[in-house]
Amino acid sequence: MTAHLSRRSLLGLVGAGAGAYLLSACSDGGSDEPDGPQTINWWHIQNTEPMLPVWAAVAQEYQGAHTGVTVDIQPLENEAFKTKLTTATQAGSPPDLFQSWGGGVLRQQVDAGLVKDLTDDVQPWIGGLLPAAMQPFTIDGRIYGVPFDVGMVGFWYNKDLFAKAGITTTPTTWAGVLDVVRKLKAAGTVPIALAGKEKWPAHFYWAYLAMRIGGLGALQQAAKDKNFDTPDFVAAGERLKELVDLQPFQKGFLGADYSSPDGQAATMGNGGAAMELMGQWAPSVQASSSTGKKGIGDKLGFFPFPAVDGGKGVASEVFGGGNGFAVGKDAPTATVDFLKTLLSADNQRKAAQTGAVLPTVREAAPAISDPNNKVVAESLASATGFQLYLDQAYPPAVGQQVNDSVAELIAGTKTPAQIVKDISAVAKSQ
Amino acid sequence: MTTLQTPTTPAAAGPATTGRRGRRPRPGRRGTLVAFLTPALALFLLLVIAPIVVASYASLYKWNGFGLPENFVGLDNYTRAFADPTFRGDLWRALVLIVLSLVIQLPAALGLAMLLNQPLRGRSVYRLVFFAPYVLSEVTTAVLFTLVFSPNRGLGGTISRWLGADAGAVFADPDTVLFAVFLVVSWKYFGLYMILFLAARQGIPKELSEAATTDGAGAWQTFRYVTLPLLGPTIRISVFLSVIGTIQLFDMVWVLTGGGPIHASETMAVTMYQYGFRRFEVGYASAISIVMFALSLVFALFYQRVVLRRDTEGALTSQGVQR
């Protein structure tokens, strides 16, 4: 009894590792002859309608046109995918084609020699994609993945609640945002919905402020120097503190999830708060989490994160991310060709028509029908700079520390000056 | 009672084997031994010993889990853990939860068990109802309570507002979250302890309390000087299970709060998971797991030697008497 209980926890961590080593011994490594039969193992996370059947149809069509190629699809739920991929990559045998968000995790996989350098293979057609979308997948000038979806974070707001508080125009400066918050509070409306339990939604505020104050380069420079202890980052924390001091969030926000029935998206979707800072998926999650499954429909509006007075950044620089695919080191030769097919203008249009994907191929942009998606896509197309979510752009430990630290700032247990020291310390330890 | 003790006391089997010591096993018998022991031993080595060895090894490296560990850092991961405010907080919170369990949860279970031992209308229904939460998995329990204490629309918040308080945001407030977690853990586990105590209470012969009454003992005196001492072995085992369970608390906290807000409900296992699977600092996470293991092991050994000693010796004597 004793031995069993006290060792159970270890089994979780180390047993997984040991199992992974055993599994790695069983992998076949894929067949490399160009003419022989090939199987492409494809892991994606579009495991629900509407994208699931779209991917299946593309794979079916490709198999029909290429005899000898089999596409073995494994649709996985987001968290399940991460766990499964961690086990596979730690064992040194990644799938042939798999979901990637680029950034720090992709860099770790590159450093471990697990993914293929695609630069030369994709050269002929990669020019048709939005440059902003390529940024997260480009590491030291080489391309290690191809995005099929790209989006950005901005303010989603409830037009009715804004009108009720007498707000006629959306704010274009940070001072304007604070003003809007004060007016909303005065009108008895909860100004902002926030999922404090999940941390990543809160990090959007700090990252965007840092980007507007220090300029786009500041975020990359900080990661390179492993130093966030600069006046610009401290100022970002202080601006965020101004917002937090107005107590703009819904009740119990520190314990709120993002997509649970009482979480951030549901609060917006049920008209319980006036705005949220969120990515392009916000309208669909608001709808699916709301009581009536419809969200607030055409009362929903979008405005980009405003500029900060005296800041070096401009409002046309966007913060966001997207979904893409990376190719495993042992993938059969047909994989890159299949990837090209996935990214064809035709298939991107099909994906865009579902409303769940914002296409990265320029030619497919007119296929976007949803008005909210259109606004996001237009902001992206005219973006003058792009920054990937910090918790994905940075090495995982630094990204998580950013999330933890911003949560501490919002909860009031740490000051803006303390959190930049904490983040720097973790960055230096990497 | 003996059914509880026998598996935990290798000494109980002692006299039986000593009788055969020195006698050579017959050839056929050796084959049987090998055939039956090998699978169990192999599994034990592979699933218990090997992971411990691998984790101890990994804990000496700075390692992100990719490839083989190469960056040897000695005991740095351990010194880092004991300097980390979050991990030190984990230790403190484990202590708080253990004290709360021993002072509130177990006595409450004991009291209830005594109550349900009385002739009471619908007694078996009560027993069933109180034991029912234990049947639920930790994750199910946690999901259930996140709904009950959902800040704006939860049942818990609504009921507490009728009563003039507001418990809607207990999981969102760093000051209350640990106690809220304790409440949920207790809700799930007190039924188990209640059943253990009840079974032990029913194992006490009626004659003893009758004799005490004849000697003029009141209800409290009978409980204090007859029932409680005879429940001793069960209470000691319950304390043991409770402490070890608290050291390893994970599922419930992970689903209820994720360790938050701002680490206020984080446990060692949650910290370990965060570092192992979120930050990819597998070496550091291994060090935390080894500390958890060491704590459990030291506590288990100490407890077995010092506190459970009487129980195990008792078991041995009774075996001796029976022979």
UniProtKB/TrEMBL annotation, chain A:
<dbReference type="InterPro" id="IPR050490">
    <property type="entry name" value="Bact_solute-bd_prot1"/>
</dbReference>
<dbReference type="InterPro" id="IPR006059">
    <property type="entry name" value="SBP"/>
</dbReference>
<dbReference type="Pfam" id="PF01547">
    <property type="entry name" value="SBP_bac_1"/>
</dbReference>
<dbReference type="InterPro" id="IPR006311">
    <property type="entry name" value="TAT_signal"/>
</dbReference>
<protein>
    <submittedName>
        <fullName>Extracellular solute-binding protein</fullName>
    </submittedName>
</protein>
UniProtKB/TrEMBL annotation, chain B:
<feature type="domain" description="ABC transmembrane type-1">
    <location>
        <begin position="91"/>
        <end position="303"/>
    </location>
</feature>
<dbReference type="InterPro" id="IPR050809">
    <property type="entry name" value="UgpAE/MalFG_permease"/>
</dbReference>
<feature type="transmembrane region" description="Helical">
    <location>
        <begin position="33"/>
        <end position="58"/>
    </location>
</feature>
<dbReference type="InterPro" id="IPR035906">
    <property type="entry name" value="MetI-like_sf"/>
</dbReference>
<keyword id="KW-0812">Transmembrane</keyword>
<feature type="transmembrane region" description="Helical">
    <location>
        <begin position="128"/>
        <end position="149"/>
    </location>
</feature>
<dbReference type="InterPro" id="IPR000515">
    <property type="entry name" value="MetI-like"/>
</dbReference>
<feature type="transmembrane region" description="Helical">
    <location>
        <begin position="177"/>
        <end position="199"/>
    </location>
</feature>
<feature type="transmembrane region" description="Helical">
    <location>
        <begin position="282"/>
        <end position="303"/>
    </location>
</feature>
<feature type="transmembrane region" description="Helical">
    <location>
        <begin position="94"/>
        <end position="116"/>
    </location>
</feature>
<dbReference type="Pfam" id="PF00528">
    <property type="entry name" value="BPD_transp_1"/>
</dbReference>
<keyword id="KW-1003">Cell membrane</keyword>
<keyword id="KW-0472">Membrane</keyword>
<keyword id="KW-1133">Transmembrane helix</keyword>
<feature type="region of interest" description="Disordered">
    <location>
        <begin position="1"/>
        <end position="27"/>
    </location>
</feature>
<feature type="transmembrane region" description="Helical">
    <location>
        <begin position="239"/>
        <end position="262"/>
    </location>
</feature>
<comment type="similarity">
    <text>Belongs to the binding-protein-dependent transport system permease family.</text>
</comment>
<keyword id="KW-0813">Transport</keyword>
<protein>
    <submittedName>
        <fullName>ABC transporter permease subunit</fullName>
    </submittedName>
</protein>
<feature type="compositionally biased region" description="Low complexity">
    <location>
        <begin position="1"/>
        <end position="19"/>
    </location>
</feature>
